[in-house]
C-alpha cells in the first residue's frame, strides 16, 4: 500500500533558496513572451498554493524575485539569519507576474511591503 505524501519540504542548494528568473533575459522578452512567462509562473505558484499537502519553504541564503513568489506560495516559511530577500526587478520597472505582489502583501506589514517593492533593496530575515 502507498502512503500519501502529507508534507513537502523545499530547500535550496549552494547558498540560495531560489533566485528567480534572469533579469537580463526578461528585459529582452516581447510582450507576447512576457505575458506567457507570467501566466505560466502564476499558474505554477497557484497550483502550489492550492495543493492539499502542507508545503514548507526552508530558506537559507538568497531568496530573490520569483524565489520570493515561490516562497510566498508555501504554507510555511522558515528562514535562517543568513537569508536575504529582495525583488531586484522592481528597480528596473519589472513587477512580478507570478502573483507575488498579492501573496507577499498578505504576509508582510503594509509599510514594509511598499518599501520592499519600491526600493528593491535586499533585507534579512
UniProtKB/TrEMBL annotation:
Name a single GO biological process: fatty acid beta-oxidation
* Residue ranges of the TM segments: none
GO MF annotations, alphabetized: catalytic activity
Domain of life, per the record?
Bacteria
Q: Which InterPro entries match?
A: ClpP/crotonase-like_dom_sf, Enoyl-CoA_hyd/isom_CS, Enoyl-CoA_hydra/iso
Provide the family line. Belongs to the enoyl-CoA hydratase/isomerase family.
Q: What is this protein called?
A: Enoyl-CoA hydratase
Amino acid at each position: 500500500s502507498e502512503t500519501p505524501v502529507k508534507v513537502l519540504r523545499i530547500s535550496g542548494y549552494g547558498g540560495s533558496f531560489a533566485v528567480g528568473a534572469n533579469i537580463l533575459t526578461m528585459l529582452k522578452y516581447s510582450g507576447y513572451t512576457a505575458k506567457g512567462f507570467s501566466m505560466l509562473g502564476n499558474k505554477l505558484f497557484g497550483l502550489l498554493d492550492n495543493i492539499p499537502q502542507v508545503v514548507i519553504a526552508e530558506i537559507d541564503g538568497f531568496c530573490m524575485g520569483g524565489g520570493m513568489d515561490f516562497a510566498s506560495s508555501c504554507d510555511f516559511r522558515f528562514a535562517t539569519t543568513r537569508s536575504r530577500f529582495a525583488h531586484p526587478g522592481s528597480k528596473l520597472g519589472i513587477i512580478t507576474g507570478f502573483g507575488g505582489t498579492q501573496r507577499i502583501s498578505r504576509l508582510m506589514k503594509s509599510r514594509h511591503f511598499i518599501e520592499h517593492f519600491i526600493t528593491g533593496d535586499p533585507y534579512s530575515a
